[in-house]
Amino acid sequence: MRSGSPTLQVDGRGLRVAVIAASWHTTVMDGLIDGARRGLADTGAEQAALVRVPGTFELAVAAARLAPHFDAVVALGVVIRGGTPHFDYVCQAATVGLTEVSVRTGVPVGFGVLTCDNEQQALDRAGLAGSIEDKGHEAATAAVATARVLDMVGGSYQPHGSSHQRAERAARAVDR
């Protein structure tokens, strides 16, 4: 674990969480997904859906569609710097888009998007054997912890009904 990282102990029982994952860089993505699954299991939250999208750019639109139906969303992707500005555009779009989804809906979005200079940096953060970090686990744990914090601070901001109502809608959405 990297120095300065918080150790979060959170009870996620009763929470339904959607995981959205990009498809590029299969080995890295498999590690991130496995890490997110472990993170959710460690908290007791239910992984109610796993949705795959083509790339990191598409994470925000999928999160926008799913967020109203879940207690939290985990977005996983990887962007590796190349020789063009494409890296900067995709990273900025993913960051701004996922932040906007979370703020607009009031549903936590765990940010598990790796933005790396090379593939080795991504492998080092993917939660694989020999990795120095497990960003999938961290993103899932952070999403659940934030959902619990929002439950504690309360308030009337529930743009799409109660957690129970969102869960019912999510079940219908996944069954389609």
In terms of topology, how is this protein built?
Elements: E1 16-21, H1 26-43, E2 46-52, H2 59-66, E3 72-80, H3 86-105, E4 109-116, H4 119-125, H5 135-153, H6 163-175
Parallel strand pairs: 1-2, 1-3, 3-4
Defining key terms:
globular, 176 residues, Rossmann fold, four-stranded parallel beta sheet, alpha/beta, 6 helices, 48% helix
Largest sheet: 4 strands, parallel
Question: Averaged pLDDT, please?
Answer: 90
Please give the domain count. 1
Silhouette:
globular
Overall SS class:
alpha/beta
Strand percent estimate: 15-25%
In CATH, what is the class? Answer: Alpha Beta
| Total strands | 4
Low-confidence stretches are none
CATH topology: Rossmann fold
Walkthrough of the structure:
- There is one protein chain.
- This protein has 176 residues and is α/β, with parallel strands linked by helices.
- It has one domain: 3-Layer(aba) Sandwich (Rossmann fold).
- It contains 6 helices and 4 strands; from the N terminus they run βαβαβαβααα.
- The chain has a 4-stranded parallel beta sheet, with helices on both faces.
- β3, α3 (86-105) and β4 form a beta-alpha-beta unit.
- α1 runs parallel beside α5 (135-153) and α2 (59-66) runs parallel beside α3.
- The longest helix has 20 residues, at 86-105.
- It starts with 15 loop residues before the first strand and ends with a helix.
